[in-house]
Amino acid sequence: MRTRVVFNQKGGVGKSSITVNLAALSAHQGFKTLVIDLDPQANSSQYLLGDDATYNADKPALEPNIENFFEDVLANQSSKGLIGQAIGNLLKNKNKGLEAYIHQSPFPSLDVLPASPSLGALEHSLESKHKIYKLRDAIQHLAGTYDRIYIDTPPAFNFFTLSALIAADRVLIPFDCDVFSKRALKTLIENIMETQDDHNDRLEIEGIVVNQFQAQAKLPREVVQQLRDEQLPVLNAMLPPSVLMKESHHKNMPLIYLNTDHKLTQAYQSLFNEIENK
C-alpha cells in the first residue's frame, strides 16, 4: 500500500484537483484507492460525492466523516478514565477502524473518507492529548483493503497536516508557478524534512507538481528552471490550464471519466505514470 499526501501551505494551488484526479486514475488502473479529505473546505469530498458531501447553513456535513473518526479517538481516551463505563462499549469503540467512516464513490474501486467543516474545533483537544499518531495507526490497518491512499490536506501546517505526513510514505507538492509560491517552498520543504526527522523516517518528497503551466509564457518557464537549478525535485509531467477542470468540478466527474483524450487528462496520465514508476 502506498500513501500519498498532497500538501502545500498556500491555498489555490490545485491540491484537491490533483488529489482526486490522481486517485481516480489509480482506481481506473485497477488499484483499490481511498481519498481521505482533511481539508474543512471539503473540496475533494464534494468533487467525488457531489451534493451528498455539500453542506450549508441548512444542510449538515455528510456523516460519518473524518471529524467523527477523531471524535471517537477522543471518546476512547475519555472512556478509559470512566470506571463505570461498560466494557462492551469500550471495546466496540476501540475496535472501530477507519473503514467505519468511509463512503463509496460513484466510480469503481474509489472510496472517500469525507471532510467536515467543523474539524478544526477538535484540533486543540487532539494536540493536548497527543493524538498525532492515531491517523497513521488507523491507516496501517487498511493495508489489506487498499492499494493506494491519497490524502488532501488543509492549506496550513497544523495538527491534521502533520498527522497526514506522519501517516504517509510520499508527499506531492502542488506548485502554480507563482513567485509567492516559490518563496514559500523553502519553509514548506523544511516542515516536511523536520517531520521526516522527528516522526516518520519513511517519508519522502515524491516531487513538485507544476500546475497551471503555460508552456508558451516566459515567466513560468523561468520559474520552473530556477527550481531545477536549485536541485528541487520538479516532476517532468506538468499540468496545463484548461476550462475542462471547471467542467469536471461542476459535473463531479474526474477527468479520466469526463474526457479521456483531452490534453489535460493526458497530462494527468503522464503525471500518474511518472510517480508510479519512481
Structure notes:
Helix 6 (about 135-140) packs parallel to helix 7 (about 160-165). The chain has helices at about 15-30, 45-50, 65-80, 85-95, 125-130, 135-140, 160-165, 180-200, 220-230, 245-250, 255-260, 265-275; strands at about 1-5, 35, 105, 110-115, 150, 170-175, 205-210. Strand 3 and strand 4 (about 110-115) form a beta hairpin. It is built from 12 helices and 7 strands. It is of the alpha/beta class. Mean pLDDT is about 90; it is low at about 80-85. Helices cover about 45% and strands about 10% of the residues.
What does this entry show, briefly?
The protein is of the alpha/beta class. It has helices spanning 15-28, 43-49, 66-80, 87-94, 123-128, 134-140, 159-167, 179-198, 218-229, 244-250, 255-258, 263-276; strands spanning 2-6, 33-37, 103-104, 110-113, 148-152, 170-175, 204-210. Mean pLDDT is 91; it is low at 79-85.
Q: Based on Cα principal axes, name the global outline.
A: globular
Quaternary assembly: single chain
Give the overall pLDDT as a whole number.
91
CATH architecture: 3-Layer(aba) Sandwich
Helix percentage range: 40-55%
E-strand count: 7
Structural domain count: 1
Strand content: 5-15%
Q: Taking strands numbered 1, 2, ... along the chain, how are they ordered across the largest sheet? A: 3-4-2-5-1-6-7
Instruction: List the total number of helices.
Output: 12
Attribute tags:
single chain, 7-stranded mixed β-sheet, 278 residues, Rossmann fold, alpha/beta
